[in-house]
Amino acid sequence: VQLQAFGGGLVQPGGSLRLACAASGTILSINVMGWYRQAPGKERELVARMSSGSTTTYADSVKGRFTISRDNAKNTVYLQMNTLKPEDTAVYYCNALISSRYGLSNSWGQGTLVTVSS
User: Fold this and answer.
1) Residue 3 and residue 40: Cα distance in Å, rounded?
2) Is 88 a residue whose pLDDT tops 90?
3) Are 38 and 45 in contact (CB under 8 A)?
4) pLDDT value of residue 41
């Protein structure tokens, strides 16, 4: 099972970006899919996650600005980021709790860099 993330880049403050992360492999089901981020010198933190039942959790710092969504048919999770701030600059990692024929695994994508700067 692999997770591959797309969509990072450089954006000005106030701008928007959309991240996507697709899971591939022999997948039976995906429970939680979400996004974490790690800024330089800081610990990795939860940004947003969504359960298979569409229950969402957001970090307080992104509420009202970021929206997580899933396309279960494509095993893909998205993160729409609006009104970006310089403090959103970080490497963003997708994460998923995946059930496959090999069991349950907590999988991570490779990370995609988001830089918010003028």
Assistant:
1) 23
2) yes
3) yes
4) 94
